[in-house]
Fold this sequence. Notes:
The chain is of the alpha/beta class. It has helices at about 15-20, 60-70, 100-110, 145-160, 175-185, 205-210, 230-240, 255-265, 275-290, 295-310, 320-329; strands spanning about 30-40, 45, 55, 75-80, 115-120, 165-170, 190-200, 245-250, 270-275, 310-315.
Amino acid sequence: xxxxxxxxxxxxxxxxxxxxxxxxxxxxxxxxxxxxxxxxxxxxxxxxxxxxxxxxxxxxxxxxxxxxxxxxxxxxxxxxxxxxxxxxxxxxxxxxxxxxxxxxxxxxxxxxxxxxxxxxxxxxxxxxxxxxxxxxxxxxxxxxxxxxxxxxxxxxxxxxxxxxxxxxxxxxxxxxxxxxxxxxxxxxxxxxxxxxxxxxxxxxxxxxxxxxxxxxxxxxxxxxxxxxxxxxxxxxxxxxxxxxxxxxxxxxxxxxxxxxxxxxxxxxxxxxxxxxxxxxxxxxxxxxxxxxxxxxxxxxxxxxxxxxxxxxxxxxxxxxxxxxxxxxx
Length: 329
Ligand code: PBG
């Protein structure tokens, strides 16, 4: 039999043909916008290492939330940045119903809660004077079980404020189970847990630390994972699903596409990925120099993260990307 004249280029000939056979397409509703609310601000304040991202005042937060929602963004993830005077050893401002994060969650729920998904970052690092994600034992190490008890109460405080989803991101062992149980006991059976299951201790979080005015000295390697480990990520994910995670998350995103793909294969809950501050800042910096096409790279990275298996993506570009995607499709 004659060898058929196979020509893959036939399907690339026109924009309409390419559109017809496009395998992966990002939808605005799959994007989550991480937002920073800073206590005591009357005007939004730019974050120099995250061009275009702000530390919000309560008022500018509400406005930016509306913009995101009208662009079609699927969810908002809120981080609270307390005044330095309100940080302490145990991060108590994170549990306070009148603390900046819970105030912000209530504002967002009142403003756009019917139209989108409101999520709270459930971690202590913004609230502790030492900047660690948990409380410290007398020897200076992060005390896993003492931290869990605080996470449980913090999750309930966020649910009380109206959060639809809480995102435990501190990588403490057992955090998902403890938060789930605390939510249930407080009558918040309907609040979901987005588990930061595989979070790597890498160098991509630099600009975020500026955004939240982190006090951290040292690193998080005793609780976040080593960059080389993928089997360990699967173990973390399986534990989290067993503990009741409704969704699992891999973070960072682009340097860990293989991890996203492996997690997707292993579990059937929705897989999320966090395109972190360093990923965003690299692109913005190169684009500012005119070295790469900002919008092109933005959509290409998100498409790649989705292709690897993430169905929900946290990105500081969420609003801009949603607008571009709406024009495109
Ligand atoms: C910790 C936390 C971190 C980020 C979100 N939550 C980073 C860290 O471990 O310091 C990073 C997000 C980003 O870099 O965009 N609660």
